Amino acid sequence: MTDLMLTGRLLDAEESLRDGLAVYLVDSGQGLDKALEPAKQIANNSPVINYAILHALPRIAETDPETGLLMESLMAAVALSSPETKQRVNDFLTGKSTEVVQR
User: Fold this and answer.
1) Diameter of the chain by CA atoms?
2) Would you say residue 101 lies in a domain?
């Protein structure tokens, strides 16, 4: 990113995908439809899980390993205690889960 910012160089879609700056590559006019796919999946997550991913993980990464492991354990305990997560884990373990993650 520093190179791009200092030089003003632009990346095309393929370069952005290759370099990890983009996650998906779609045909022209398909961006909104593709953006809505993960948005719908995220909206179905437990709010606690989404909070943990957006707020706790970045802080965990910034700490020393010992503190990070403690924070991760505490956040996992909180996330796994939510009713939504308990149901999803139960569905997975009993083979009732019908969701398929597409990559």
Assistant:
1) 54
2) no
